[in-house]
Amino acid sequence: MQTLEGSAQNLVLRGFHVQRNFVSSELVAAFAGDYDDGLTAANQVYSLGLPAAENLARLRPRIEALIKALSSSSFRPTRIGGGVFFATGNGINFGWHQDHESYFINQTHRNYLNVYIPVVKPKAAKSNLTIVPVDNFAEAVPELWSRLEGGGASTFRQQGGRRWISDDCAGGVIGELDFDLDDLAETPELRAGDALLMRGDLFHRTQDNDTNRVALSVRVSGDQHTVTREHFECTCETKNWFLQQNAPMYDAVRTVFERHESLPLHALLEQVFALRTSQNSA
């Protein structure tokens, strides 16, 4: 396996890093078997598969080594979350966006990392993620990127000749564009076991759904910053739709914020986990 040297610099400067052979072929096969077992997450927004806990535990030391490699940089994710499978065969085919639901809860993507690992990948050149590197975006529209950097829950939209970035958290328009994001895009070619490391504020889309690609996504966040009830309750039509589709999760978040105006993210996540666990065991 490659060392993790260079991952921090690339994530800071470009917003992504490709780590070849991040996961052993044996563990890749185990994750592919987990997907075939068909356990799914209770989320009506997407069709998500769930890996086995024991296989996530086998992956954890590799992600901990990654976190250590990033610890001396200005980008410092620390808290390893769970993992889910995104599969083109289950209708995963997204347009240009920054991640939404992680932003609704974390309220920032300043230290948020997506460790994206294909575990079923028939063709290296097909069904990847197409991305807009941070440096490309910042060079093209520096003022707009300054409003988008570290954020999330925004989408590139176009109608007729108009192109714009929508704010899907508070509503409205963040900025207008006179070009297509495809003009700035790159598509790293991945094989099973490679990892695409992406910051949470990176704009990305599905390259295509021509092949039956399954990818494991494990999220790592910084959890020491403060989250607020005011931010969570700031909403719009798009955010309300997400909250309704994944109601059990967001009801638990809402319950915690009924007790607190603000609290550290790690405390919010711990209390939400406790509420969800008690609900599931009831």
Can you offer a commentary on this structure?
The chain is an alpha+beta fold. It contains ten helices and twelve strands. It has helices at residues 7-13, 25-37, 53-70, 101-106, 134-140, 142-148, 229-233, 237-245, 247-259, 265-281; strands spanning 16-19, 79-87, 112-120, 129-132, 154-159, 162-167, 173-177, 195-199, 203-206, 214-221, 226-228, 262-264. A five-stranded antiparallel β-sheet has the order 1-8-3-10-2. It has a three-stranded antiparallel β-sheet with strand order 5-6-7, covered by helices on one side. The longest helix has 18 residues, at 53-70.
Keywords:
alpha+beta; Jelly Rolls; five-stranded antiparallel β-sheet; 36% helix
Strand content: 15-25%
Strand count, sense and closure of the main sheet? 5 strands, antiparallel
Cα-based radius of gyration, to the nearest Å? 18 Å
Shape: globular
Highest CATH level, the class: Mainly Beta
What would you call the structural class?
A: alpha+beta
Task: Provide the residue-averaged pLDDT.
Answer: 94
H/E series: HEHHEHEEHHEEEEEEEHHHEH
Strand order of the largest sheet: 1-8-3-10-2
In short:
With 282 residues, the chain is an alpha+beta fold.
